[in-house]
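Internal tracking record. Fields below are filled automatically when a chain is submitted to the structure queue. Please do not edit lines marked as system-generated. If the sequence contains nonstandard residues, flag them in the REMARKS field before resubmitting.
Queue: standard
Priority: normal
Entity type: single polypeptide chain
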Amino acid sequence: MRVVPVGERACLVEVEDAAAAASLAASARAWRIRADDIVPAATTVLFDGCDPAEVEAALPLLDRESPGDSGASVVLRVSYDGPDLGRVARHWGCSTDEVVARHTGTGFTSLFCGFAPGFAYLGGLPAELAVPRLDAPRSRVEPGSVALADRWCGIYPTASPGGWLVIGRTDAVLWDAERVAPALLAPGTRVRFEALR
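SYSTEM-GENERATED OUTPUT FOLLOWS
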């Protein structure tokens, strides 16, 4: 891990991947590292409103000890009728029913948020199920669209352009500024999908 100061009261800690970033952020929160905000990303963790020297001094403890599994758990009900469901089935060499079974049988974890408020990058797909993005992004993807790209799963919180493969849709409200915690799938949240019948 490498610590990069960002001004006087913040620093970025560079890590190997998104899973390591999520783990470091969860550990830092559990061990109550003094920072106004701790934000994981794909290969970094931002400690904002902190003493960078204190963060750097705490890293050996955070790297060595795990705080345990303390994230919330969410089940999302999905209509698996997305326009790219067949494309994913062909890529995986299986039927669309098997795509649904694999997707609902996978435990996902929100590793970080980005792209749009409430958009969580959900890790959990094994490498052999990685899928390519569309060659040309759609100009509009509907809110609630459940989509895959590479080894990620994500749900579009609002209508926006997007190049991920859409396999279904959910009615879950992913971002609500009026909620105490606006993002439904904050980093650390465990996510399971359930097929609507």
